[in-house]
Write a structure and sequence with these properties.
Radius of gyration: 13 Å
Structural class: mainly beta
Largest sheet: 7 strands, mixed
Number of strands: 11
Shape: globular
Order of helices and strands: EEEEEEEEEEE
Strand content: over 45%
Length: 122
């Protein structure tokens, strides 16, 4: 069983930055960030293999967001720069014990955090 705890959300003006953190208890091989805005489906943002560090990003955040990890702390980060109002959403950390699934298939990730709100004002 894996438990995930996110932190770091908040409100920021467009063009600003935020860093999200996700601390995991238990073994994971893949951790990712997803987001869901009101009235929209949950969408993948970025994911990382915890062994090896291979990453993948959604096109909408490439060049602005960076996913990274601190294996000693079993923590994954999402650095978000050049934030836009359309980035406003609840951001969720997710994990999988064996492999990274496509960011378009959040239902394949069995472990989820409680979410942290990110609000970007124009």
């Amino acid at each position: 069983q894996v438990e995930l705890k996110e932190s770091g959300g908040g409100s920021v003006q467009a063009g600003g930055s935020l860093r999200l953190s996700c601390a995991a208890s238990g073994y994971t091989n893949c951790m990712g960030w997803f987001r869901q805005a009101p009235g929209k489906e949950r969408e993948g943002v970025a994911r990382i293999y915890t062994v090896g560090g291979s990453t993948r990003y959604a096109d909408s955040v490439k060049g602005r967001f960076t996913i990274s990890q601190d294996n000693a702390k079993n923590t994954v980060y999402l650095q978000m720069n050049s934030l836009k109002p359309e980035d406003t959403a609840m951001y969720y950390c997710a994990a999988e014990s064996y492999t990274c699934y496509d960011l378009r298939t959040p239902e394949k990730y069995p472990y989820w955090g409680q979410g942290t709100q990110v609000t970007v004002s124009s």
